[in-house]
Design goal:
By secondary structure, the protein is mostly helical. It is about 65% helix and about 0% strand. It contains three helices and no strands. The longest helix is centred in the middle third of the chain and has 22 residues. The radius of gyration is 17 Å and the shape is elongated.
Amino acid sequence: MKKTQVLDAIQDMPEDIAIDVLMEKLIVLQKIEEGQKQIQEGKVYTEEEAEKKLEKWLR
């Protein structure tokens, strides 16, 4: 995550904000960025592959 992205996230928030809310937003933005990078690198699963991997959890 770039410093400009962090600053933009802070700018979009209200003046009074709890630090845990800010941290949660930054974590979500980081996860989104990681997911987009994985998509660009082709590190994705088809629906069938995902279902097979999650089979034990979906019982």
